[in-house]
Structure formats: structure tokens, C-alpha cells
Amino acid sequence: GITAICANDDDSNTLLTGSIDKTVKVWDIRVKNPIQQSYKSHLGAVHDITFMPGMLTCFASGSEDGSVRLYDLRMDKEISVFIDKDNNDGINSISFSPSGRVITAATDSRLLKCWDTLFDLDPF
Fold it and tell me: What is the largest CA-CA distance in the chain?
């Protein structure tokens, strides 16, 4: 079943969902067949999903597999993966900074992890 849902603040017709079946789906609620794109890159259930601030085409997902993944709808693919190599606890919640430059994740072990979205580096 669906475990996360997010609407785009700039386009109320576009929704994202994350599921226990490890998928991320992009929906357009104006059309008869609303699922527009589907991604299955996570190795565990998707617990949270969010659009990058001010962007209609970029979003991130967080999963129990310990990864945060960044996607670009224009390219129709995942563009970055953020994982803490020292502690890969499941991700429960994610949030972008107002600029979209930093993404923060809350983990199963009650830690906050932050990554710079421009550089695929270890969390800080």
C-alpha cells in the first residue's frame, strides 16, 4: 500500500506517492490513466517523498533501505543517491532546506542526517 503522498505546491494536479512495494509513482490527476511515471530503485519500502522547493521536476524519496534518492522528471531518472556508509538506518522522514541545496533525513535510530544536493558526499 501507499505509505507517503506529496502534492506539488506549484501544480496541484501532480502528486507523488511512495509505497511499501518500494516504488515511487508520479500521478497526474487530470487524466484517465493517472500514473505517469514509476520508479523502482529503492530496496525497501518508501517512507517519505517530497518535491524540491520551487521545482516542478525534481523530488526526493526516503526509504527503509537507508537511502535518499533524488529524481528529475525531465530526464525521467534518478540523478543522485545519498547513503550514510557508516550507518544505513532506515529513513523515516525527509525535508529540503528552503533553497533545496540541503536535504535532511530522520532515521530509525533517531539521528538527523544532512546532505548537500550538489555534491554526493558523506552526510554532515
Answer: 45
Q: Are 14 and 8 in contact (CB under 8 A)?
A: yes
Residues 6+ apart with CB under 8 A from 78: 39, 41, 69, 70, 71
Give the CA distances from residue 99 to residues 85, 95, 117, in Å, rounded to whole numbers and listed in that order: 26, 11, 10
> What percent of the chain is predicted at pLDDT more than 90?
81
Count other C-beta atoms under 10 Å from residue 42's C-beta: 26
pLDDT in tens, 18-52: 999 999 999 999 998 899 999 999 999 999 999 99
Closest CA to 115 of 82, 77, 70, 73: 82
State the Cα–Cα distance between residues 3 and 118, nearest whole angstrom.
28
pLDDT of residue 120: 67
